[in-house]
Amino acid sequence: HSVVRNALFCLETAANEKENHVYTKALMAYAFALAGKEEKRRALLGSLEKEAVKKDGSVHWQRPGKEPEVDLLYYRYRAPSAEVEMTAYVLLAHLTTQPAPSPEELSLASLIAKWISGQQNPNGGFSSTQVSCSPPG
After folding, report:
1. Which whole-number Å values give the CA distances from 79 to 7, 32, 62, 66, 115, in the listed order?
2. For residue 58, which of 112, 99, 121 has the smallest C-alpha distance?
3. Which candidate, 54, 64, 69, 48, places its Cα nearest to that of 115?
4. Cβ distance 36 to 100 under 8 Å?
5. pLDDT for the residue numbered 71
6. 129 found inside a domain
7. Residue 105 CB coordination number (10 Å)
8. Are 47 and 88 in contact (CB under 8 A)?
9. Dist. CA 87–CA 84, nearest whole Å
10. Average pLDDT over residues 89-97
11. Three-state secondary structure along the chain?
């Protein structure tokens, strides 16, 4: 379809820019994964890997220049919703590949999923910039 083809062309042009925000790269990696553009998906994931925050046996992404998170005695830090979302898009990009994710991608995906699961609120949901994700109570 011409609209999809034009949108992919736009994304491919944007992906070639040197300075893309980490959130933008995460979204584009997932979009290219859905479109079956494996080379672009891999290139973006490679770039994102360089920006990953690896801590406590988990992996996530955060906004550039952000202050490091601090856990206090009675309060566990939870990342802002945008960081949860971009990390989730990276996870989806790793898992959305044909014919199937490699063992290395599955290993990294488990570290990403570990971080995401640690961001759950006491009700089992997540903060979001879109809609409430808490399960019905």
Report:
1. 31, 26, 8, 11, 10
2. 112
3. 54
4. no
5. 55
6. no
7. 16
8. no
9. 5
10. 95
11. CHHHHHHHHHHHHHHCCCCCCHHHHHHHHHHHHHHCCHHHHHHHHHHHHHHCEEECCEEECCCCCCCCCCCECCECCCCCHHHHHHHHHHHHHHHCCCCCCCHHHHHHHHHHHHHHHCCCCCCCCCCCCCCCCCCCC
Structure tokens at 21: 């925000």
Number of domains in the chain: 1
- Domain residues for the domain of 6 are 2-119
Q: Which two tokens stand for residue 75?
A: 């309060």
Is the pLDDT at 117 greater than 70? The verdict is yes
- Per-residue tokens: 85: 């979302």
Contacts of residue 119, defined as CB under 8 A and 6 or more positions apart, other chains included, come to: 78, 79, 84, 126, 127
C-beta separation of 45 from 94 below 8 A: yes
Over 70: is that where the pLDDT of 18 sits? yes
